[in-house]
UniProtKB/TrEMBL annotation:
Pfam families: Peptidase_S37 (PF05576). The lineage of its organism: Bacteria, Pseudomonadati, Bacteroidota, Bacteroidia, Bacteroidales. One of its GO terms (molecular function) is dipeptidyl-peptidase activity. InterPro entries: AB_hydrolase_fold, Peptidase_S37. Residues 1-25 form the signal peptide. GO terms for biological process: proteolysis. Keywords: Hydrolase, Protease, Signal. This is PS-10 peptidase S37. It comes from Bacteroides oleiciplenus YIT 12058.
Amino acid sequence: MKNIHIRYATLLLFMLLAIPASLSAQTALKQKLSKISAIKEVRPLETSEFAEKYVTYFVQPLDHHHPERGSFRQRIIVSHVGFDRPTVIVTEGYGAAYALRPKYREELSKLLNANMIFVEYRYFLESTPEPKDWQYLTAENSADDLHAVTTAFKNIYPGKWIATGISKGGQTTLLYRTFYPDDVDISVPYVAPLCYGVEDGRHEPFLHNVSTAENRKKIENFQLEVLKRKATLLPRFEKYCAEKKYSFNAPIEEIYDYSVLEYSFALWQWGTPISSIPATTASDDDIFKHLLAISEPGYFTPNSPNASFFVQAARELGYYGYDIEPFKEYLSIKSSKGYLHRLMLPEELKDMDFDKTLSKKITKLLKKNDPKMIFIYGQNDPWTAAGVTWLKNKKNIHVFIQPNGSHLARINTLPEKEKKEVMELINKWLE
């Protein structure tokens, strides 16, 4: 009996010792978060990937050069491994909702067992100022946001820092490095375009040469077939848009045509198998269903979830155009030039001019400097047309292209040899 009491007492003591250790680890991070004056709210999140995870709200000036003009709350998700681990800052280009999921973990954070600071982009989801004054949605302000976050969190995580992002998030990684070259040790932009204009001009020739002539012909034949069947498919298209409650800045027939023009870009961007394209003899049902699966017309609504991105694309990030030549005979539009302004921008911004200052500033940084950067692209992704694949003979800037890859190209999708090279570079830089 005495032995049982001793064992019970020992077990109880062990449990009492173990519980404070766990709680103190949580408290240490929460205490540190509470000392960041810009953070006004901290809420715990479920996680299966990290020791702790919180959603926080960080107060940012609307205009970092004129803080007196007001502020907004930026959503930041903090995922903790250890104070002695490297930290990955995810420079998201859009909203952060998906990063709230318990199982979410960004690729580099997983590969390096690193902490993760996930920053929602201004003017998206919960990081949208009220009222929505478009003048403050600039690349420089977004870089200033990231600088403020990094500066604050370096008091918690003093080790090495890596910035990374995908697509527009990759553009953000790139522009962040341009405005603040010393904020992070390493930058890894995924599928990041560097466009020189609203209709950059390099995407259309890229689509004329991507993959094989046979594959390109199959895509073009499908687009032509959709246009040839306009008389029967347009009423169905109009009904679909009405059911979705879409509103457009152009007649429905033009939106139909633009959906067809967008098809080839979207198909290559997401790596849809060519084998999934219906034959030109397929039923109306199959043709229509496939078109919507690849090129959904909601993309062309001015109030889409991407509206803030379209504003930035027109202002300074750039975008792509369409080649209408092969389809002219069947189109209701005579030219697609200026479609972004006409179809997707808020009314008050339709006359906005494109400013080339940002692309020139980024290009100058990459040409004249050699920061530790790794670019990942997909060979067949149309955005690669505007990638920084022209960079040569740099010691620290490296470009990797996944063979036949799409906009889903990542470190883990690279061939084994290149994947190993990427990780050896990063681990060397982290030493």
